[in-house]
Amino acid sequence: MAQEAAKTPKRSSPIKTAYLILYNAVSAILWATVLGRTVGANMLRGPAFVYVSTGDFVLWTQTLMIMDVLHGLFGMHCPNRPRHRCRPSRVPLRRCLGVQYPFPALCASPVYSSMLFAWSVTEVIRYTYLAVKLGGYEPAAFTWVRYSSYLVLYPLGITSEMIQMWRALAPAGHKFGPLYQLFLGVSLFVIWPIGAYVLIGHMNRQRRKVLAAQKSENMKATQ
């Protein structure tokens, strides 16, 4: 009996679950706002005005993502499906502080808009999925979108980030000196490619695992 009790997954408290649902719902709304501002500014005034409309809002929205890391450190898992935990995503704050914030002129490019589009759509999907899942629902179609949309959005976002870093290399040297320029160069040619490989590889494994489990459950349900 003791062994059976030890194997029983620990249920999350209703308060913690409610907090995580609220956190993910608020995060989804914030990123949906980023998406709306990005699309709206492009349609109404062009890409040169996107940073004016989104700059500080994106910075604070990204800052909130630090909570993802803290949730992971304190073991705040998705309680309704123990087979995969709510992993903290990479926090993109450094991209805003390291390139976009010091060099706002770079943000007049359509590349900045494509980067924000990739970030915001990715996070709206991810946070909405987690909020719905924590509420006890996991629609099959939404699960497929969650674990398939990255195949387009991640390459778009990562490529846009790298183009922005490339464009920042020269002004970084003039404004902050050769050491900062070297840091950006190492980030561009070493850290980002390795990080992209690891991140997309992780998502590929998660996709295979989650969709295979979903297929197995569907087959059992039809038997």
TrEMBL record:
Highest rank taxon of the organism: Eukaryota
GO molecular function annotation: very-long-chain (3R)-3-hydroxyacyl-CoA dehydratase activity
Keyword set, alphabetical order: Endoplasmic reticulum, Fatty acid biosynthesis, Fatty acid metabolism, Lipid biosynthesis, Lipid metabolism, Lyase, Membrane, Transmembrane, Transmembrane helix
Gene Ontology BP terms: fatty acid elongation; sphingolipid biosynthetic process; very long-chain fatty acid biosynthetic process
Catalytic activity: a very-long-chain (3R)-3-hydroxyacyl-CoA = a very-long-chain (2E)-enoyl-CoA + H2O
Topology term for the membrane: Multi-pass membrane protein
Associated pathway: Lipid metabolism; fatty acid biosynthesis
TM ranges: 20-39, 59-78, 99-119, 179-200
Compartment(s) where it occurs, according to its Swiss-Prot or TrEMBL record: Endoplasmic reticulum membrane; Membrane
Xref: InterPro entries: Tyr_Pase-like_PTPLA (IPR007482)
Keyword Transmembrane: yes
EC number(s) reported in the record: 4.2.1.134
Enzyme class: lyase
GO cellular component terms, semicolon-separated: endoplasmic reticulum membrane
Cited PANTHER family: VERY-LONG-CHAIN (3R)-3-HYDROXYACYL-COA DEHYDRATASE
Role summary: Catalyzes the third of the four reactions of the long-chain fatty acids elongation cycle. This endoplasmic reticulum-bound enzymatic process, allows the addition of two carbons to the chain of long- and very long-chain fatty acids/VLCFAs per cycle. This enzyme catalyzes the dehydration of the 3-hydroxyacyl-CoA intermediate into trans-2,3-enoyl-CoA, within each cycle of fatty acid elongation. Thereby, it participates to the production of VLCFAs of different chain lengths that are involved in multiple biological processes as precursors of membrane lipids and lipid mediators.
Family, per entry: Belongs to the very long-chain fatty acids dehydratase HACD family.
Protein known as: Very-long-chain (3R)-3-hydroxyacyl-CoA dehydratase
Lineage summary: Eukaryota, Fungi, Dikarya, Ascomycota, Pezizomycotina
